[in-house]
Every structure is written in structure tokens, then in C-alpha cells.
């Protein structure tokens, strides 16, 4: 132990290597960005000309996006892209954090909407390259989350139903892949369903423009339960499963009227049991799951059934539809991906519109991470990998940029455990033809 300690103490550290690349896997993301022609798209759709800090928005958005892909949660973290030879694996000039802060504060509500339109067009382009559902069924999970902040200088931040100071964005994700299809920043005091109808209108229009030609099913929790939301989904020709609050009088009465013989047992946890049945509530199909504990000591404390219900217009066996609705929980994985060591872990500005623009950049970063790991004929096992794993195995690859016999060469570490996956993904992304604008 003593010899090892002395050996470590002899190591000299210097920061003077200009060719080291901090996150060499950004080469993958940069390759996809070029195929999507993202910088040109932002320059053409986000019109900030004449505003302080508004010039060349494409390279500024991409600097933020690539920093988030690498795990940035603060504007200052973008400086990692300017270290060593990192900028050489990116298809754009990297901007300084001070410039990025000024740029974000340039946004107004209208400019944020322009950036939202960029996210929608990028989705269309990616789906046209094979990432979309085509004519297959598209399952979308809609949910809201709390982005906690510190201090009282954040414009729009407030205490909501969770009694946490922050913002309350709403978002929608694709169940099969984890792509975030649409998101909107909201003030912290907004209730869960605020703006849901308009959000759904924009969401469905966006995915249909992007090429979703098959059946669309939307899953939501009880926070979105309302006749207005159901009417909006019907008008949009969208199927749904919508959780309800079972302690409300009408729902409780409908559940109490279920014949005891109609309850069917389903697989559940080892220390509990569950049953499913269905009835109608205001002319709509109501599927109910009831659960209780089976451990004798715990059952003495909680002997009664607990009920969970949802409305739906889907056909099929109640047990199967219940299992389908329970998978709505996967949206929490996408929310975690957005927050965990990346864009939404921290909301950086005191300006609400700047934070709204930051949210859209986080969406772009999140989707680029997902597409980097899946586009171009992915091999088995490369679906639904959490963003932190992709970042650890593909993005956070150390490398050294050299000129080898006139060929720019990125040299990675010997025996990198995921080198074959990296090579496979780079080959697949380079084989993609740039999408026509």
C-alpha cells in the first residue's frame, strides 16, 4: 500500500495537450446533426436578427445542445467543448458561455415558438430517415414535471401543488423509443391540466406532419382528466387511456356497483394481489384495478382494497388494456433522462423565456442522443437505452485527434469496452443520406 501511494504521488499533471478530445463521442452526434442540416435549419427559422446576441443562432443553439449531450446542466459547462481538440469533432464553431447567456436572454415568446417549430421540423426530418413509426401505431405519453429552482429571482417560478419552488413544464414522449415529441415550459403555479388542450392540438399536428400515419394512442394520468380533454382527443381522432380519481363520488359509486364475480386476478407483486374489472362511467368504458397486501402483519393495518381506474375508448380484454395503461410509467424514464445530469437538472436563467428556450435545446439534445443510438438499422439491444448509459458508453469517450498520413484520425483508448458499438453506430450514421430541406 505504501509503494502504491508513493507511485501515485509521483504523477505530475499538466493541462497542455491541444489534441485531446474530452467527449470524442460527440463525433456521432455531430454526424447526425450534419445529416439533419440542423444549423442551417435554426438559422432559417429562428429570426433574431437585429437583437443583441441574436446573430447566427444556429451555432449557438448547437453549442448548447452538444454541451447538454455531453452532460451539461449549466451554461458555463459549454466551456468543455472549447477544451483541447474537442471542437474538431463538431460541425460548427463553439460559442463562449457568456455569449450563450446573452443569446438566451434575447428570446421572446414568439422566438421560443420559432425554436419549438425547429424541434418539430427536426422530428419530421429524423422520422423521414427511418426513425418514425410510419403506419404503425404510435403511443404517446403526456405528463408534467417539476423543475426545482433555488432563490426567488427566477421569473415565473412559484410553489405548486408539490410545495416545491420551480417551473411546471408539460411534455409528451414516444413510448417505444423515449423521444420527447413536444414540451412547453409553464410557470410553477400552473396546475397539471393548464394548457393541455392546446398542447394536444399542437402535439398531434406535429406528429402527423412528421409522418405518423397510423393509429395514435395518448396515455395520461388523472391530472389531465376532464371532459374538455376527452373532447379534444375525440376531435383529433386520437384513442386514449386516462386515469381518474377514484375517490370522486360518481366514480366511487360506479366501482361499488361492479359485481364481485366480475373481478379477475392478475399477476402482481409477491406481497400483494390485484384484480381487474370494468364498468361504465357516464357512458364511457371504465377499467378498474384493485390491489391489497397479502402479508398478514401488514394486512392488519391496510386490510381494504385500493382502487385505480382509467377511462378508455380502446377495445380489447380489460386485463390487457390495464397492462397497456400501466406502461404509461415509462414517461418517467424520459423525464429522468432530461433531468439526470443534463439539460433540465438546472434551469439557468432568471428570464422565463430564456428558460423556455433552454427547454427546447434540452429536447433537441435528448432526441439526438436517442437517435444517435438507434438510427440506421440498430442492432438488437440498442433500443430504449437510458441516456446516461449512452452518454457513458458512446459520448464520454476520451480521444486524441491526430493527422495520420494526411488523414484526420481520432484515436480512442485501447480496449475501450464499447468500441464495437461506437464503430457500428458511426458507420450507420455516415451511411444516412442528408435529408432534403
Summarize this entry quickly.
It contains 15 helices and 15 strands. It has 437 residues and is an alpha+beta fold.
Written overview of the protein:
The chain has a 9-stranded mixed sheet, with helices on both faces. Strands 1-14-15 form a 3-stranded antiparallel sheet, with no helix packed on it. The longest helix is centred in the N-terminal third of the chain and has 23 residues. Helix content is 39%, strand content 18%. The N and C termini lie far apart (62 Å). By secondary structure, the chain is α+β, with helices and mostly antiparallel strands. The protein is globular and about 80 Å long. The protein has 15 helices and 15 strands. A hairpin with a 2-residue loop joins strand 11 and strand 12.
Could you name the key traits of this structure?
three-stranded antiparallel beta sheet; 15 helices; nine-stranded mixed beta sheet; 437 residues; alpha+beta
Outline the biggest β-sheet. Answer: 9 strands, mixed
The H/E string reads HEHHHHHEEEEEEHEHEHEEEHEHHHHEEH
Q: In DSSP terms, counting alpha (H) and pi (I) runs of 4 or more, how many helices? A: 15
Could you give the distance between the termini? 62 Å
Low-confidence residue ranges: 378-382
Helix-strand category: alpha+beta
Give the helix proportion (percent range): 25-40%
> Count the strands?
15
Task: Provide the β-strand percentage band.
Answer: 15-25%
Shape: globular
